[in-house]
Design goal:
Elements: E1 8-11, E2 27-28, H1 31-43, H2 54-61, H3 76-87, H4 101-115, H5 120-131, H6 136-149, H7 161-164, H8 172-183, E3 190-191, E4 197-202, H9 219-222, H10 225-237, H11 254-275, H12 321-340, E5 342-344, E6 350-352, H13 358-367, H14 375-378, H15 381-390, H16 416-433, H17 441-444, E7 449-456, E8 459-469, H18 486-492, E9 497-498, E10 501-514, E11 518-525, E12 529-539, E13 558-567, E14 570-577, E15 584-585, H19 591-602, E16 609-610, E17 619-620, E18 633-643, E19 693-702, H20 705-709
Parallel strand pairs: 1-14, 4-10, 8-19, 15-17
Antiparallel strand pairs: 2-16, 3-4, 5-6, 7-11, 8-10, 9-10, 11-14, 12-13, 12-18, 18-19
Helix pairs in contact: 1-19, 2-5, 3-4, 4-5, 4-6, 11-13, 11-16, 12-15, 13-16, 18-19
């Protein structure tokens, strides 16, 4: 929404970030939608308990998948799945690992069943049957990816990953305490006014019990459950095994987005490191001991602990020389492709990557996704490297796996080696970008437009407590719907029960947050025209207190916003609040509250909203700013107003942007600017400081929650 005055004040409610669009529009669910939403929430309850819901158990008994074959748009997917099913699937209770080729083959076959189901009825019956007949982890993964990619599931809210599988997000101490509550009859739990018993279990980060290295100073960032959920969903939106014209992921510039996304992770992580006096991200050698260890203190549902990596872990000397050789071969081939300017195809021909669109080919190649033009030769660098760095084991049973935290998307960002490894990957990215010529003055300048002034509120960060529903961490009594009163079903449906009582267990942890802030740009324009505003935050000084040079610092900027404005001739004041930044989302509603809302909506006592405020494809808003320091820490913002370049496909074509992220639509992005523009190329300072850009110095103050809640901030 825009209001244009003689001196224009633009309060921009919705823009498009270079990756995601978060609208403030809201729709409300009807009964068919609520039916789907309720079923999805229930199917993810206590996934390791076979007969949790008696009505689901009874329903699946009468379902014959082979006889239902014609209810799929591609009937062959039923034969494909049943062939694997009859020859032996990953057993129940085994750990599912998407990097395991046998596990992945079966998960993809299961996904195809869900994706090609003709309608909701077929999807539902197949899902309920699979809930009791396939490996639990595989089931969760396949349903998640299917819901995110089926057009008829737009707007469906999946439970947060950390509430489906608390084991992957909360350490063993928290899980053990939750199970103690259950085993001891919930002694000490309090009954709320709504008749539900609840308990709050304190949760902390790795290093709380054992401090193993300096990297744990930023464990609150690396282990943030919102950050790790975002990374999990990123790979559910763009699975490496999914590709081709049917899914259209290449239309979203998936290869370029993969590289840019990880560059942004590193930039944001580096800002947090500076806030904790850690400096640049360390490097490592494949041939030398890995200095940084990691003790995740996590365990799988079946009791197997996640593998650990001690400080100075010497993987090269532990019979993994062949793995190192494979890794270095892949790295060499990738660097040669960048340096030669072409990729070798399987038939011996070449793809030129010296043009700007070459970054898409390179990104797909490095990730080794299904749109890579030569997986065989350029290999599976990320997969093999994570196996080596994570400290996991070589398994000789194809159905058995014990993935390290690096080998799970839900946990990968917890490990400091994630950032050290991707520093190498992003190094390839910049090796390629640096082959491109620097932008000329006329390519970054916006004739007739000048940023005259910047105003910004005081920036304050703090830690506040966040509660996550971890009830799925404990096994509960079977829900026998035939014995439940109608009033109970209407009020809470099928919540966790113990001795006939509803209960919910929460993990309470401190998470980084910040006070909302606003900025105002005073922009002069010589004529009415459309423009795009890009906003970044980066460091002012390095770890030694030296001022960063412009070009040396370009890799360290984290993008905050990217939005469209209508400029008028004369003075324009562009006002923007941090709560409206484009690709950030608020904290997820807990499973317990979400389920209550659905049940109330069914009874007509509540309007269930469907919007993008908690979209799975959004970055956690609470991590927008680095922690800073108590006395203030200097950072710099970068503001730039650029011409608007409309995309070839009109934005939001093919999906409802009110409820969907538009994955695979090719219509997600605001404009045609390269990701990271204008920092995506080497900077020629002689052509850099144009009137339409400005650096703005700002201090970030870190306060206690008590100080924040007082008037003396």
């Amino acid at each position: 929404m825009r209001s244009i005055l003689a001196i224009t004040v633009l309060c921009l409610w919705a823009g498009a970030a270079t990756g995601h669009y978060m609208t403030k529009e809201v729709k409300y669910a009807d009964k068919p939608f609520l039916t789907k939403q309720k079923a999805i929430l229930e199917i993810f309850q206590h996934v390791h308990q076979a007969e949790l819901h008696t009505h689901l158990w009874d329903e699946q008994k009468s379902f014959d998948l082979a006889a239902y074959k014609e209810h799929f748009t591609k009937p062959a997917v039923v034969d494909e799945f049943l062939h694997l099913y009859h020859h032996g699937m990953v057993p129940m209770e085994e750990i599912f690992a998407v990097y395991n080729e046998y596990h992945r083959e079966q998960a993809v076959a299961l996904f195809h069943l869900f994706y090609y189901a003709k309608d909701w009825d077929t999807f539902y019956k197949t899902m309920v049957w699979a809930r009791f007949h396939v490996n639990e982890g595989m089931f969760v993964y396949a349903v998640t990816v299917a819901v995110l990619h089926r057009p008829d599931m737009q707007g469906i809210v999946l439970p947060a990953p950390y509430e489906i599988y608390p084991y992957y997000f909360f350490n063993d101490v928290v899980i053990s305490k939750a199970q103690h509550y259950k085993m001891q009859g919930f002694h000490g739990m309090k009954k709320a006014a709504d008749g539900v018993y609840s308990a709050y279990i304190p949760s902390n980060y790795t290093g709380y019990y054992v401090h193993t290295n300096a990297e744990q100073r930023v464990s609150y960032f690396m282990e943030d459950i919102g950050l790790n959920s975002y990374y999990y969903y990123f790979h559910a939106d763009y699975p490496t095994w999914m590709g081709g014209k049917e899914f259209g992921l290449m239309k979203d510039r998936r290869g370029e987005f993969y590289l840019y996304q990880h560059q942004q992770f590193l930039a944001r992580y580096y800002l947090e490191r500076l806030s904790n006096d850690l400096g640049t991200i360390p490097t490592f050698s494949w041939y030398k001991p890995i200095v940084t260890g990691y003790y995740p203190y996590l365990r799988y549902y079946n009791g197997v602990p996640f593998p650990t990596r001690e400080n100075y872990h010497n993987g090269y000397m532990m019979e993994k020389q062949s793995v190192v050789q494979e890794i270095t071969d892949y790295e060499r081939r990738i660097m040669e492709a960048i340096d030669y300017g072409f990729i070798v195809l399987p038939d011996g021909t070449f793809v030129n990557i010296t043009i700007p669109s070459g970054i898409e080919y390179l990104g797909n190649l490095i990730q080794s996704n299904a749109d890579s033009v030569n997986q065989r030769f350029y290999g599976y660098l990320e997969k093999v490297a994570k196996f080596f760095l994570g400290g996991s084991f070589e398994m000789y049973n194809e159905f058995r796996a014990i993935p390290s935290v690096l080998e799970r998307y839900e946990t990968a960002m917890r490990d400091p080696m994630f950032y050290q490894f991707f520093k190498r990957i992003v190094g390839f990215y910049y090796r390629y970008l640096d082959t491109m010529p620097s932008y000329k003055y006329e390519e970054v300048n916006f004739p007739g437009v000048k940023v005259e002034k910047v105003e910004m509120d005081k920036l304050v960060t703090y830690f506040d407590n966040f509660d996550a529903d971890i009830t799925n961490a404990v096994d509960v009594e079977v829900f026998d719907e035939t014995t439940m009163k109608a009033s109970e079903m209407k009020k809470f449906g099928k919540m966790a029960h113990y001795q006939g009582e509803d209960f919910v267990l929460y993990a309470r942890m401190p998470r980084l947050n910040h006070l909302p802030f606003s900025f105002k740009l005073s922009v002069a324009s010589d004529k009415p025209q459309k423009a795009v505003v890009v906003v970044f935050i980066g460091p002012k000084y390095d770890q030694y207190g030296n001022v960063y040079g412009v070009n040396a610092n370009r890799e360290n900027f984290f993008q905050l916003d990217h939005f469209l404005v209508d400029l008028v001739a004369g003075e324009n004041v562009i006002a923007r609040n941090s709560q409206d930044f484009s690709w950030f989302v608020k904290d997820r509603t807990t499973y317990f509250d979400l389920y209550k809302q659905v049940m109330k909506a069914f009874s007509g006592d509540y309007k269930f909203p469907i919007d993008m405020s908690e979209a799975h494809c959004g970055f956690p808003a609470r991590l927008m700013l680095p922690k800073g320091k108590k006395g203030g820490m200097p950072f710099q913002f970068f503001f730039m107003v650029t011409p608007y370049h409309a995309p070839e496909v009109e934005r939001f074509t093919g999906f409802d942007h009110t409820v969907s992220c538009g994955i695979g639509s090719g219509a997600r992005y605001l404009d045609t600017l390269p990701f990271g523009y204008p920092f995506n190329r080497k900077i020629d300072e002689a052509a850099w400081f144009t009137p339409n850009m400005v650096y703005y110095d700002a201090m970030i103050y870190h306060k206690s929650e008590t100080e924040v809640n007082s008037v003396f901030v």
